[in-house]
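Hi X.,

You mentioned you wanted examples for the new student's onboarding notes, showing what a folding record looks like when two proteins sit in one file. Here is a clean example. The first protein comes first, with its sequence line followed by its structure tokens.
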Amino acid sequence: MKIFFISDIHGSLYYLEKAIENYKKEAADFIAILGDELYHGARNDLPKGYNPKGVTELLNKYSDKIIAVRGNCDSEVDEMVLDFPIMSTYSSILYNGKRLFLTHGHIYGEDNIPKLMDGDVLIYGHTHIPVAKKENGIFIINPGSISIPKESNPNSYGILENNIFKIKDLNMNTFKELHI
């Protein structure tokens, strides 16, 4: 199974279209969205190609392939227009004997790691900063943001296949990698 991870779309149809192109090229089975699908939030400038309605339409085409969690900029109104649930604070996926704990990062994250077992994986967004490391037996991963990267990082996404998590820029160049 191959999982494509994106976070912090913030309503950018421009960057979502690039990400979906990469999802297809990667031939991933599922898309995991780590929150902040439609809106930019009060702390962010409008991202390039800001078009929440267009983002909704494009994401809905892939609704049967999407696993999503709620970000701090998401609301119940957003879930009313999306054809997949987004209002859960977290989701867990079992992957090759490991628990993948998916969350946005504003509740659970590096500063508030949930109760996980040794070897489990925390995957979050929110900070817009790519992370791939292991601390205290827990793998900690953030694929960064596809639309509003921070700290001079590239627009990025993650891909998980064969127990290898890669963080790539939108040109599909791997710049972080972690064997989980």
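Then the second protein repeats the pattern, sequence line and then tokens:
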Amino acid sequence: MTSEQSTPSAPEAPETASPRRAGIRYALGRAVATPLARMVYRPHIEGRENVPRSGAVIFASNHLSFIDSMAIPVAAPRPVHFLAKSSYFEGTGLSGAASRVFFTSVGAIPVQRGGGQAALDALDLQRQLLEEGLAVALYPEGTRSTDGRLYKGRTGVAFLALQTGAPVVPVGLIGTDRVMPVGAKMPSVKERVTVRFGAALDLSAHGPASSGRARRQATDEIMAAIHALSGQELAGVYNEPPAAGPIEKIKQVLPHERR
């Protein structure tokens, strides 16, 4: 695959978002939610000893269900942050307040979703979290797999790892798509989830973050580790959203680096 060799432009920090440390609300939410979720869903957790207990770390996982971002923090032996749509924090009334409390308590940080500047802002926010020595969870596929296959990884995770020096812990999630399939409003308690943490990856040998080749090779190493943990069928292509028009269709087939 041809990848661009130019250095990604350094995104400016978003004006309205800032990294937030695990405060009292998160600590209380984690203390309540983690044992409750483990009691209800009885997850199989493997490889917790592979997770560094301190310092920056990136959890790079396959993505099958909405609850993946809850499964990883519940299973991990340390606090984990992930980015969530800002709309989850903007509701009004009792339901809006409940949504804000829930997502904050599980380590979610609001961001504007989308491409262009929004994507660069999200990348920069994740870098700030890592520079604070925190743990973040990311999905190299970019979006959920609706057919259960493992899609090609985008290079944003590798870029962050190479730029910050943070190790990458690959994660294989199994069964989250059965617990809460796409379109389901509530998770099922009849199914069990398996969360597998692989050995931490030091990707620095691939080269600097400014190298497109290094980003691509590091991404392929991450995806190979995820595949070994999840056992999914490989799709061999990117998980692209439906093209909105003819220009987007052309852009999807042209050689370019997916971030």
